[in-house]
């Protein structure tokens, strides 16, 4: 808890390897490590806890009945709020005293950055670009091609090179779920991220309000699946018909 409150990222990362650590332990005020990191605005620590601590309870409440999401919203920690929502925190949960959600607490405490962040995430609640069924499209491309083909000069390549530097009419990821993921992981942003990004769960892209598995859980799942696939596929060293020949030889003897 002290490491999360102080922002000691290396200590939190090291403690994730301890099998006897209770990440949901609460202090005398009911605060957990996640609550302390979220309300302090330590985004890397919040991401570490969410991604590397299996069994982390996002809905654990303190003595006043506030969750980590509510406490981060009250302090206007917009990026921590985004990380919690992406990990599956319940945006509809209310505190038992005043009956307000995290968004209502943000409005009440004038946390306008958090209010805007939540509303932008709600507009694009899923990272459909990371699904294997997503087809990247550029709405302006057909019009540019038709316009270039209608003119003899300049050439199509020259016109495309001249127009590719223009901004999109509506940037598809700004402030959305994918924008948060890319900012947290790579500090880059691009609408064409799907061309170079693959996930361990291609059929279940990250979505707002959906509890995501931690990295250790995903690795165990991927290892088990790879083991099942290797056992199901025949070995390339096996000789077809060798077993039948041995049975025939044994029967003849």
Polypeptide structure, described:
This protein has 253 residues and is mainly α. It has a domain at 2-125 and 208-221: Serine Threonine Protein Phosphatase 5, Tetratricopeptide repeat (Alpha Horseshoe), CATH 1.25.40. Helices cover 47% and strands 0% of the residues. The protein has helices at 2-6, 9-15, 33-40, 43-52, 68-74, 78-86, 102-108, 112-123, 141-149, 156-163, 177-185, 215-232, 242-252. It is globular and about 75 Å long.
Write the layout of secondary structure elements.
Blueprint: H1 2-6, H2 9-15, H3 33-40, H4 43-52, H5 68-74, H6 78-86, H7 102-108, H8 112-123, H9 141-149, H10 156-163, H11 177-185, H12 215-232, H13 242-252
In a nutshell, what does this entry contain?
It holds the Pfam family Ank_2. The protein has 253 residues and is an all-alpha fold.
